[in-house]
Amino acid sequence: EDVASAVAAPTYSPAAGTYDEPVSVALSADAGATILYTLDGSNPRTEGNAAVETYSVPFEIAETTVVNAVAKVGAEMSAVAEAKYVIRKSPGLSIYGTQEFTIELLEEGSIIVDNPNKVEPITYKSSNPQVAYADKTGHIFTYAVGEAVISVKYAGDEIYLPQELLVPVKVIAKEPLAGLTVTPEGGTYNDLTEVSIQCTDARAKALWYYIGDKPMTLDELGILNEFEINKSTTMTLKLDHSCVLSVQAMGDNVWSEPQFITYTINMPLRADFEAGESYETVYNNGFDTDADLKEWEVSAGSSWKLATS
User: Fold this and answer.
1) How many CB atoms are closer than 10 A to CB 274?
2) Phi, psi of 107 (to 5 degrees)
3) Rounded CA gap, 41 and 75, in Å?
């Protein structure tokens, strides 16, 4: 309340305001004045107010408080001097459950924050998002083997202090699928060749393969860049030309080491003729040797000739 008085109101040191830690408050008034004050926001001028205290030494304020003070000389009191001290407090965030993570590559995890004062927003930021990243809910995604630290942060407001929690994340490689076998394991063959592929690892679900004139390249995770999919863990291929077979076994976010196997296939040249019919065959590149020529099988009674071009 505003009161006309010849007595000057007390002053505060430090001044009212927002502080990030407890403050020691000193009151001062004109010489000879007694200072009366309250810490509950009530009026120290009110007769019989049990909350009124007589000031003698500075007092500590550890939480948000409204201080009201008057100076008294004889029976006369000053106007009330009010000061509000806002002491920001910790939001009290903590990590519930797992506080540091070891996660296999391409698997996921979740940071669970205990937020007793329901402050918001809480942000998540990775020191190494190429390894591990956390979305706005604290869900962790992994992309490469390595280490990262997820910062869980509240920026603070007029009531609560800023707070940051650090959550270490280590991403490790999965144990690769084992038991991938290819039979025969490459070599030189003079006819159509059957190749059997299987993976006996219980985690395997499919076979990825590529047949080309050179090994298929791999991506940053060590997976074939191009491939055909066989949706089981066993298969048979029939090879009729020289090639490099690139093959991997695949499971759920886990795979085998790739295998690159070279096959040289020398398919024989054959022509079958029915008796009584005549054919002219043109072989553009000719026969390299007499042995190649003898690979041609001709039925009895047929006539044929070799033409060059």
Assistant:
1) 9
2) -85, 175
3) 22
The domain boundary, picked from 140, 172, 204, lies at 172
Identify the three-state secondary structure at position 290.
Answer: helix
Instruction: Please tell me the number of Cα atoms within 13 Å of 253 on its side-chain side.
Output: 13
Residue keyed to tokens 């020529």? 293
Q: Which two tokens stand for residue 18?
A: 């927002």
Six-digit token pair at 35? 């200072």
Do 102 and 134 sit in the same domain of this protein? yes
pTM exceeding 0.90: no
The boundaries of the domain holding residue 230 are 180-265
Q: CA 308 to CA 305: how far, in whole Å?
A: 10
| Tens digit of each residue's pLDDT (9 = 90 or more) over 44-91 | 999 899 999 999 999 999 999 999 999 999 989 999 999 999 999 999
With contact defined as beta carbons under 8 Å apart, do 38 and 67 qualify? yes
